[in-house]
User: Fold these one by one.
Assistant:
Number 1:
Amino acid sequence: DARVTQTPRHKVTEMGQEVTMRCQPILGHNTVFWYRQTMMQGLELLAYFRNRAPLDDSGMPKDRFSAEMPDATLATLKIQPSEPRDSAVYFCASGLVPGPSNQPQHFGDGTRLSIL
Amino acid sequence: KNQVEQSPQSLIILEGKNCTLQCNYTVSPFSNLRWYKQDTGRGPVSLTIMTFSENTKSNGRYTATLDADTKQSSLHITASQLSDSASYICVVSVNTNAGKSTFGDGTTLTVKP
């Protein structure tokens, strides 16, 4: 089965450091999403791209977060500088929109980020 | 404000028993409702997707129902197995641009032998 691949799976770093998370969407999918999941907030949409163009990043703290898609096989989410409150699991998902019968989003297994 | 509320927050059942999870939403205009299963340490996996015109959909032992009039959905799990232990998340989208979705906080199901 095709899968969304995220790297790294785990990241521990000190506050103030730059963090880069990477995502390889499923080949052929035209929409890529970045989510953050915490115990307190659940799943929150940070940003999403359609055909590599950013469509909505209103969920992202823009002073420190940035999301890009340098090509169709790679999406990145960067945090600079990182803060302890950024500790969470970050998920990437991809999908085909519009698609038949409202195709689901396919999620990666996430990057578990801990900022000390 | 668009909201999705799930109940119960957590549930413990014995293996082999059935259970039903609830999802109430105030999202409008409605496009589709999805149920996801999320195992510990993994990403969510889609179980079912229902549009306005569908009121039931099955995926193996999982059956989702939708009442668009009352804005309620349920996920019924039949003959539960230990592997059903997970978080179940209800997601409602307002249009076919799938990024505009509202997520519930999930129900944590524990199946005990």
Note: Chain B has no helices and eleven strands.
Number 2:
Amino acid sequence: QSVLTQPPSASGTPGQRVTISCSGSSSNIGSNYVYWYQQLPGTAPKLLIYRNNQRPSGVPDRFSGSKSGTSASLAISGLRSEDEADYYCAAWDDSLSGGVFGGGTKLTVL
Amino acid sequence: QVQLVQSGAEVKKPGASVKVSCKASGYTFTSYDINWVRQATGQGLEWMGWMNPNSGNTGYAQKFQGRVTMTRNTSISTAYMELSSLRSEDTAVYYCARGYSSWYEALNFDYWGQGTLVTVSS
């Protein structure tokens, strides 16, 4: 049972917009930045979004992040086949004094 | 270019210890934290802890307190993660990741190692 809650799966067709949610609490998302990672099969995770809604250089602007209260979301617009991957949210948890990840969401491009 | 290169796969027996290395290049090793994250097969990511290579200060997830030790050798820009009293549930891919020392950037991991598979089996 992960501290941050994500839906186990999501799907969409090419060109569609998909949103992945991440629910936490006041001790993590509610008081700290949220980060999003993309993990393609058999590879290390890659930073997708930092500080709630910032994109590292090289990440397409099709990816966007938002946060409201104790929840966060990752939106992917103009869905492409290469977006098929696992997506994880992460945040620092003040109560645990440690980092926590969501359980991950497997995105399928139909 | 920034690179984190980890040591090779390990097979250990229950009760043993494993030490995984993470060699950094392409940046000043002591300017960024090194974090360790593990992933069991088919499972999600699990944060294990952080180490500041400059000071040697560490912070461990409660789950691993007493079993994990993170160290470094600054002369060769290498970080280490040692996990003791191994059990089958510790079978996973272990990643090192570059992070930031500031609290608000605690989960900002911009570069990752390739991962090291540790198998615990009798």
Note: Residues 81 and 99 of chain B are 15 Å apart (CA to CA).
